[in-house]
């Protein structure tokens, strides 16, 4: 089942966690039940949180079989391109197409209150969760850096003091899919609890060449102790391994520049979605259509091998909460490490990556006790990260080897005050000061083949893919030098060492007003700024990205707590917006580049409704309209680009102007519909769930070519389950993507090969699931 965000009501916290509660429960009057969130760093009823936020509970994650961010795309504002290297997250069209350490994400990912700096490290957390909060728009005060598009908060179930309980779930489906997770909670006296959780996921590849196969597992251990009525300490450690055959793609076609017509011409491949890049048919297409760089008449060799993922991600942190007369003082020190060993071909070329990253952080905050005229949140945060990265890619005629070290040190301090002018009127103001100090050193080495005898080009050998520069069979001795590679063929070496440092700081702010217009209705309006740090390419730095967002919203409940209606109007203004894309930089190297492209405007509306017309019937609907347009989208590239935008030669460069185009991954209309019917059968109950999502057409790449446009899609899911009414056990049958629509989630032309590759969504999957709790 896909996931529908779960806005609910009332004034009490929802008990339980993953596998132990439902999103919506029946109260004494058959109405809706509350969710308590911490999106604003203090526990509050979701319906009283004056921020745009969607929530998915842990029970819904179990029911849907969600094992990663990709299944959260039914949150209307959120789209996720889950690939072999991690998750590319977009909120209302704003995100990042890059996994490289030189580029930071636009949507902050926070695991158990810890900011995770790398998009490739956002895997292995989706089990035994209390809830996931998706905050929409900049979070410039409480969350700070790199949260210009929003934030995703993944919150695990915490140990329960003095209680022995747990749950287990296992499912089996097509593609030989196995998914299992569970948790055991052990009470250690009345004032302590230990919780051990784990998950395992395995399935065959969704593409014909076996790619997108998964074989992953994770474990989490937590100890929570109430040392005194005022002092609580929680220790947590986790480990996740992601393995399998990594991400796959399919050739969409080839392109070539027609000098006579003065434009690029595309020849479609004719492959159906899900073909893959390494089937016999795909390899034959590649070796007869893909141009080997600048070698006239030479086509590409087959890809070196099937891709793979070998990620190890682990960390530890503590949370210390001290109740004082002036509020709750919280201290969160944390360390996280990620070891990435990856070979990926989704871009249509051989790309390998070895990466080690370590991040350290500590946050201290003071949250005032409730019931004061002025509520306050005061905090300080420090983040430090070091990344050692080794990236190597090859098209056969060109081989690139980039070794680099990136360091970031980012201290910040923040404050937010809320003034309760009356019982029904509140004003909020917030400030955050952030400083980013970044350094990098790198060495880029490029080997390029060229013909000295043109007649030899069509049959000349190509360079093999190797993980290191030293493994290449022929290497010139000096920068700029050449060496004979084969009869009539030479190889040239270009070495580009680079280093740099940058220090930027930013003061971001928030202003808001909240107005209670009834016992269960609220209006709010806010203005907030956000900031994403700048960074470095191998050829040039790029500047920070800034946003100012305006929001007007309302939250309501009616008819004795049986109907909820929330609505939001938003207007986001970006300046110096960052874009990461696959291209050719100023040194002639093919790779992912980040540029500041200009300004964009994102405005629209979102409406969510939840109803329980009968005690056992729940209906949901959510609709979002987005008008997302680049007001200024201009960049330069040294090679003639294949784009659907205006291109103007400017000296030795080409100026590309895509102003007026829509943002990527930003469908104008998104509609979610869902229904649940519970049928009591004595001590048992039968539960039927169904949901569907519509998205209008959207762009899946930044070049704005026809091959990157995905038409409108409908994706539907259904589930039927039978179990005890108290939830002790259940058995369910499910089907996801009933339409079997393998719509496109990402596409790109591949410089140097003149091929176009696209990544498709997961096909129809189905299976059965058993669950129990105690």
Would you give an account of this structure?
It is built from 2 helices and 43 strands. The strands form 7 sheets. The protein has a 22-stranded antiparallel barrel. A 5-stranded mixed beta sheet has the order 3-9-10-7-8. The chain has a 4-stranded antiparallel beta sheet with strand order 17-16-42-41, covered by helices on one side. With 774 residues, the protein is mainly beta. The two termini are 24 Å apart. The chain has a single domain, classed as Maltoporin, Chain A (Beta Barrel). 2% of the residues lie in helices and 59% in strands. The radius of gyration is 26 Å and the shape is globular. Residues 1-28 have low confidence and may be disordered.
Nutshell version of this structure?
This protein is an all-beta fold and 774 residues long.
List keywords for this structure.
mainly beta, five-stranded mixed sheet, 774 residues, 43 strands, Maltoporin, Chain A, transmembrane, single chain, 22-stranded antiparallel β-barrel, iron transport
């Amino acid at each position: 089942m896909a996931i529908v965000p779960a806005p609910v009501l009332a004034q009490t916290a929802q008990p339980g966690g993953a596998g132990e509660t439902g999103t919506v429960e029946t109260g004494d009057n058959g109405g809706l039940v509350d969710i308590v969130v911490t999106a604003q760093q203090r526990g509050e009823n979701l319906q009283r949180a004056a921020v745009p936020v969607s929530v998915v509970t842990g029970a819904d994650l179990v029911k849907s079989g969600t094992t990663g961010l990709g299944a959260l795309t039914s949150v209307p504002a959120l789209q996720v391109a889950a690939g072999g290297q991690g998750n590319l997250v977009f909120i209302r069209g704003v995100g990042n197409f890059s996994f490289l350490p030189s580029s930071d994400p636009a949507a902050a990912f926070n695991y158990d209150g810890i900011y995770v700096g790398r998009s490739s490290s956002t895997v292995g957390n989706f089990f035994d969760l209390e809830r996931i909060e998706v905050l929409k728009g900049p979070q410039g005060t409480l969350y700070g850096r790199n949260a210009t598009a929003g934030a995703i908060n993944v919150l695990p179930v915490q140990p329960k003091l003095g209680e022995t309980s747990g749950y287990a779930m296992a499912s089996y489906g097509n593609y030989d899919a196995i998914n299992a997770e569970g948790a055991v909670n052990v009470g250690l006296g009345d004032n302590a609890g230990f919780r051990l959780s784990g998950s395992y996921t395995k399935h065959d590849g969704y593409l014909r060449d076996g790619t997108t196969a998964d074989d992953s597992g994770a474990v989490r251990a937590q100890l929570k102790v109430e040392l005194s009525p005022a002092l609580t300490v929680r220790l947590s450690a986790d480990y996740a391994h992601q393995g399998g055959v990594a991400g796959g793609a399919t050739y969409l076609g080839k392109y070539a520049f027609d000098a006579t017509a003065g434009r690029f011409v595309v020849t479609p491949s004719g492959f159906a979605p899900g073909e893959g890049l390494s089937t016999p048919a795909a390899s034959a297409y590649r070796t007869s259509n893909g141009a080997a760089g600048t070698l006239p008449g030479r086509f590409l060799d087959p890809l070196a091998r099937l891709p793979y993922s070998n990620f190890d991600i682990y960390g530890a942190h503590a949370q210390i909460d001290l109740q004082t007369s002036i509020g709750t003082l919280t201290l969160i020190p944390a360390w996280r490490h990620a070891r990435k060993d990856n070979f990926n071909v989704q871009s249509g070329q051989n790309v390998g990556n070895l990466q080690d990253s370590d991040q350290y952080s500590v946050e201290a905050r003071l949250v005032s006790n409730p019931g004061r005229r002025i509520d306050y949140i005061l905090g300080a945060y420090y983040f430090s990260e070091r990344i050692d990265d080794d990236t190597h890619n090859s098209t056969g005629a060109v081989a690139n080897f980039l070794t680099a070290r990136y360091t970031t040190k980012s201290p910040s301090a923040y404050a937010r005050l809320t003034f309760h002018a009356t019982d029904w009127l509140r004003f909020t103001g917030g400030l955050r000061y952030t400083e980013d100090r970044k350094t990098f050193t790198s060495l880029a080495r490029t080997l390029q083949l060229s013909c000295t005898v043109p007649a030899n080009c069509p049959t000349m050998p190509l360079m093999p893919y190797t993980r290191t520069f030293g493994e290449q069979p022929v290497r010139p001795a000096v920068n700029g030098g050449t060496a004979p590679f084969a009869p009539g063929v030479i190889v040239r070496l270009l070495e580009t060492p680079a280093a740099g440092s940058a220090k930027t700081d930013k003061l971001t702010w928030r202003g808001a007003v909240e107005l209670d217009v009834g016992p269960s209705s609220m209006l709010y309006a806010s203005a907030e700024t956000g900031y994403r740090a700048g960074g470095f390419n191998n050829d040039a730095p790029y500047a920070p990205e800034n946003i100012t967002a305006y929001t007007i919203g309302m939250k309501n409940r009616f008819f004795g707590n049986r109907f909820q209606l929330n609505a939001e109007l938003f207007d986001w203004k970006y300046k110096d917006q960052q874009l990461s894309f696959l291209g050719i930089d100023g040194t002639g190297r093919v790779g992912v580049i980040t540029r500041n492209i200009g300004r964009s405007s994102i405005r629209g509306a979102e409406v969510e409704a939840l109803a329980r017309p009968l005690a056992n019937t729940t209906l949901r609907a959510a609709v979002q309209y987005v008008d997302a347009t680049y007001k200024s989208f201009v960049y330069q590239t040294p090679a003639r680009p294949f784009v659907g935008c205006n291109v103007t030669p400017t000296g030795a460069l080409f100026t590309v102007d895509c102003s007026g185009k829509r943002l990527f991954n930003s469908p104008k209309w998104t509609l979610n519909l869902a229904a649940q019917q519970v049928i009591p059968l004595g001590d048992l109950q039968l539960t039927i769930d169904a949901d569907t999502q519509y998205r209008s057409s959207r762009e899946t790449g930044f070049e704005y070519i026809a091959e990157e446009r995905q038409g409108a899609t409908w994706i539907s899911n259904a589930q039927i389950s039978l179990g005890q009414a108290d939830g002790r056990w259940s058995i369910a049958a499910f089907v996801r993507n009933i339409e079997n629509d393998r719509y496109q989630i990402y596409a790109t032309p591949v410089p140097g090969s003149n091929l176009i590759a696209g990544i498709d969504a997961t096909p129809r999957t189905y299976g059965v699931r058993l669950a129990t709790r105690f």
